[in-house]
Amino acid sequence: MQNIINATKINTFLDSKNILSETKDVYRSVLENLEVFANNFEEKPLGEILSLFLNQDLKPKARIMYNSVASQYLNYIDKIEKMGNIEPTVKPASPIEQKTHEPKQKPVFIGQEIDFSKLIKFDDSAFFVNKCEPYHAIGDEVEKAELALLSGRHFCIRGKAGTGKTSLGVYLANKHNMPVVKIACNDGVKDYHLIGSKSVDENDQVKHEAGLLMQAVLLANKYGKCEVILDEANTLKSTTMKVLNPFMDETRFINVNGYGKLELIEGAQLFFYLTMNLNYAGTNDLNTEFKGRTTMTEIKNIPREMQKAILSRYNVRSDIIDKIIDMTEKINYQQSINEIDPLTVFSTREQLTALSMIEAGIDSGMDEKKAVKLALSVNFTEKVYEEKQQRQIERIISGVFEGNRYE
Ligand SMILES: Nc1ncnc2c1ncn2[C@@H]1O[C@H](COP(=O)(O)OP(=O)(O)OP(=O)(O)O)[C@@H](O)[C@H]1O
Ligand SMILES: [Mg+2]
Question: What is the pTM of this model?
Answer without folding.
Answer: 0.76
